[in-house]
Amino acid sequence: MSKKYRFFYHFFKQKGKMSVHFRGKCHIVDHVICEPECETHWRNSQPRLVMRGWASNVIVNNNQAVIR
Length: 68
Prior knowledge:
Layout: E1 5-12, E2 17-22, E3 25-29, E4 31-34, E5 38-42, E6 49-55, E7 58-61, E8 64-67
């Protein structure tokens, strides 16, 4: 079993795209496919609402992020 890391993603309003954050990097993509379970998380600062969970890998290809 590979190690799991925290990820979160949200809508990036200024660019009109999705922003996926994983292992200290931000990926700006048009589409997100999320395979692991995720939960909503309300924050006090922007972005106010994010979807977060635990994943072992994020693959970005053809402007699409696949969270595994």
